[in-house]
């Protein structure tokens, strides 16, 4: 079984070399080109992923910066709104106090005027009563103007 046949061996070597050259010419070139293209595509994808990662990190940093700025601006707006609200509240309190004082002063003046009018009416009514009483007592009618004048002078001399 292990006999060497030189003719068979020669044709086997020639067939192998011929088959090797045919494979190299027609199969290895396209296979290697396909493998190189695939390797290049993978490298390109890795580079693109790296670029995308770097851009995503930049975008994330920019977003964080904008978020921080927005939060600071929101805090400032809230502080300004609180300060404005406090100022409005103080202004309203001051206006309310001033209006209340004005109303109290007007009420006091009104009370004073009404008190004075009441006192004057009472004096006038007393004067009329005294005149009527004097007329009944004396029996004759004096000039009411004279009586009124006498009574008012008497009231001025003795206000109680």
Description:
The chain has 160 residues and is mostly helical. Helices cover 92% and strands 0% of the residues. The protein has one domain. The chain contains two helices and no strands. Helix 1 packs across helix 2. The longest helix has 133 residues. The radius of gyration is 61 Å and the shape is rod-shaped.
Characteristics of this structure?
mainly alpha; 2 helices; rod-shaped
β-strand amount: under 5%
Give start-end ranges of low-pLDDT stretches. none
Total of domains: 1
The pLDDT mean sits at 87
How far is the N terminus from the C terminus? Answer: 165 Å
Helicity, as a percent range:
over 70%
How many helical elements?
2
**Computed CA radius of gyration, to the nearest angstrom:** 61 Å
What string, H for helix and E for strand, traces the elements in order?
HH
Task: Find the structural class using helix and strand composition.
Answer: mainly alpha
Number of strands: 0
Shape: rod-shaped
* Major sheet: none
